[in-house]
Amino acid sequence: MKKTIFPELFTVIEVAEIFKCTPASVRNMIRNKCLDAIKLPGTKDRVQWRVPVGELQKFINPDKETVKERKVEAKLGYSEQLSDKKIKIKTILNEYNKAFEEYVVKVCNKAGCHINYLRSQSRAKKIADLRHILACIGKEEFGLNDTETGKILNRERTTVIHARNKMLGENSLDAFQIKCMKTCREVYKEVYGKDFARLQLTE
Predict the structure, then answer these.
(1) Neighbouring residues of 98: CB distance < 8 A, sequence distance ≥ 6
(2) What is the model's pTM?
(3) How far is CA 161 from CA 51, 104, 175, 177, in A?
(4) Residues 68, 52: contact at Cβ < 8 Å?
(5) Comparing C-alpha atoms, which of 201, 200, 194, 150 is closest to residue 177?
(6) 177: nearest Cα among 166, 188, 167
(7) Range(s) within the chain of domains with CATH label 1.10.1750.10
(8) How many CB atoms lie within 10 A of CB 70?
């Protein structure tokens, strides 16, 4: 009997490394049908998604071949120039950036805080708390990395990491933080019709 040849599969982490994004961004693309993936049988663990190499072809940018892309082509055994009409990973990530930026503006409007004030250098507790919670949401719900989140909040990557770690490390939220969290959750439900999928802050 001739042995069946299965297409080589990439893990979510491998795909994230190739496209220089976070694993969460890759999972978002899978959930939103932007990237086809196979879920290994007998497990509910989200890390068990596998992406066929053929799916990666449409994300490789033919205009600027990188070392990562050459590795993919070598793994695929495919070296032809890919069509410019193929979807680029940058386009998809830009859509998530835009969605988060629009969400931040809506949260600011509902909270009575101008977006410019949120993005200012103010360290006032009320504005800082809202900014810290949004840093968590950018990572956990929109799958953005710390650099992308920082650009929208006008903060350095390390500042975003510190803000998120500080908020996630809180044993419980104070009254104003709870109010900020409630506002963020309400806006998310209004926009997407559902509650947060991953963010868990102790209220």
Answers:
(1) none
(2) 0.59
(3) 29, 18, 23, 18
(4) no
(5) 201
(6) 167
(7) 90-192
(8) 12
Q: Token match 């419980």: residue?
A: 172
HEC per residue, the chain? CCCCCCCCEEEHHHHHHHHCCCHHHHHHHHHCCCCCCEECCCCCCHHHEEEEHHHHHCCCCCCCCCHHHHHHHHHHCCCCCCCCCCCCHHHHHHHHHHHHHHHHHHHHHHHCCCHHHHCCCCCCHHHHHHHHHHHHHHHHCCCCCHHHHHHHHCCCHHHHHHHHHHHHCCCCCCHHHHHHHHHHHHHHHHHHCCCCCCCCCCC
Per-residue pLDDT of the chain (203 residues; tens, 9 = 90+): 333 333 467 788 888 877 777 888 888 888 877 777 877 665 555 557 888 766 776 665 444 445 455 555 544 444 343 433 344 455 666 777 888 999 999 999 999 999 999 999 998 998 999 999 999 998 888 878 888 899 999 999 999 999 988 888 877 888 999 999 999 999 999 998 988 887 877 66
Token couple for 134: 């949004």
CATH architecture of the domain with range 90-192: Orthogonal Bundle (1.10)
